[in-house]
Amino acid sequence: MPGTYYGRKRRPPSPRAQRDAVLIEQIKDVYRANYGVYGARRVHRQLRRQGVQVARCTIERLMLEHGLEGVRRGAKSRITVPDEIAPRPPDLVNRRFVADQPDQLRLADITYAPVRAGCTWRSY
């Protein structure tokens, strides 16, 4: 139907879009007032205290769309910690990973894959 594009362009914003525009400003205010630390749960709780009736999933959706993310607690886990004084193996290929002919160069890569039971590794 040829009139659909222009019909969509002329149509006013939906009630959801209008409410989202108001909500995102309130979410940004709460987020900024708390130094960008609050996640969706805390923003939801603060808005409820202010008397704004909104579902937490709506706040999660809007925060995700606008790139707002709360700070996570705890230290990030590091799988390997390099030993600074340990000897390093020599770089035999001088960082040149392209072989001139087949069976001339063989490389290996060890990738750690975190799983629930701990950490496992894969060799390629």
From TrEMBL:
Domain HTH-like: 19-75
Protein name: IS3 family transposase
